[in-house]
Specification:
Radius of gyration: 21 Å
Strand order of the largest sheet: 1-2
Domain DinB-like: 115-258
Oligomer: single chain
Number of domains: 2
Shape: globular
Organism: Nocardioides exalbidus
Structural class: mainly alpha
CATH class of the largest domain: Mainly Alpha
InterPro entries: 5peptide_repeat, DinB-like, DinB/YfiT-like
Protein name: Pentapeptide repeat-containing protein
Largest sheet: 2 strands, antiparallel
Distance between the termini: 48 Å
Number of strands: 2
CATH superfamily of the largest domain: dinb family like domain
CATH topology of the largest domain: Four Helix Bundle (Hemerythrin (Met), subunit A)
Helix content: 25-40%
């Protein structure tokens, strides 16, 4: 007899052996697989989100179809580190992307101005859709409105909470990442449905905060050591102003691409 659909919540199964076991269509949430040894496994159609894969080694694998979206530091395929090749190709396709790694204040100003221009075009695409579709999720990703709310949280966390050391930089519309710990005093309203103009007003405020930081910043200030005044990123060591601003740039860049991808899907569905 085969048991299916069992619940193993809050159980310690570390050190267990699973041999000739069918785990197809199982759901893993907040599961630790550190040090796991996986052999002769069928991982077809596997979906992994928000995972830390440092030190992963795969040998004897066949990869007829795989997609990876994320931050890639070092990725060696058949002896070749493909990360620099991927970076070069992405910059070739999107020349503005290379501006997202500035080394001086002038470069940061140019990067944020470039994002302003690119996001303006993205917002124009959003306004062309019915307002209710801007609250619609595609493939369980954030809606357009939720994306803008999350970017508000990123600004608050990295600029307000770290660069400006504000212990409570939040706005009620801020939206932390899905796996963030629940912290008293930090907004996390999943059900609120603000209008596009409401979240754009907040974005304008946050953008003005960044501009004020840049206006008062000299190049040597980019290396100023900073620590978080909020419960987030308190474990991070060696942070400086440049790193915090770069995180915000990358968040803005990547989430705009996701947003345009999903807006296209919504547009095609109308």
């Amino acid at each position: 007899m085969t048991d299916t659909g069992q619940d193993f919540t809050e159980q310690d199964l570390s050190g267990s052996t699973f041999q000739r076991v069918d785990l197809s269509r199982s759901s893993f949430r907040e599961v630790r697989l550190a040090g796991a040894d996986v052999r002769d496994a069928d991982l077809s159609d596997l979906r992994v989100r928000s995972a830390w894969l440092n030190g992963v080694r795969m040998t004897g694998v066949e990869v007829p179809d795989m997609e990876i979206h994320g931050e890639i530091g070092r990725l060696v395929v058949n002896g070749v580190d493909v990360a620099p090749l991927v970076e070069a190709e992405l910059n070739r396709r999107m020349p503005e992307r290379a501006l997202m790694s500035p080394t001086d204040v002038a470069g940061f100003r140019l990067a944020f101005e470039t994002l302003d221009r690119l996001w303006a075009g993205t917002v124009d695409q959003a306004r062309a859709l019915p307002p209710e579709q801007l609250h619609e999720q595609v493939d369980e990703e954030w809606s357009f409105i939720e994306t803008l709310r999350h970017l508000g949280f990123a600004h608050a966390c990295w600029v307000g909470g770290i660069v400006l050391t504000d212990p409570s930089p939040w706005h009620p519309l801020d939206l932390p990442w899905d796996e963030a710990p629940v912290v008293d005093g930090v907004p996390w309203d999943r059900d609120v449905s603000p209008s596009l103009d409401e979240v754009l007003d907040l974005r304008a405020q946050r953008r003005a905060t960044v501009q004020a930081v840049l206006d008062d910043l000299a190049d040597d200030g980019l290396s100023r050591h900073v620590v978080s005044a909020t419960p987030f990123m308190t474990e991070a060591t060696g942070l400086d102003v440049a790193q915090c601003l770069t995180v915000v740039l990358n968040e803005e860049w990547e989430h705009r691409l996701y947003a345009e991808r999903d807006l296209a899907r919504l547009r095609d569905a109308t």
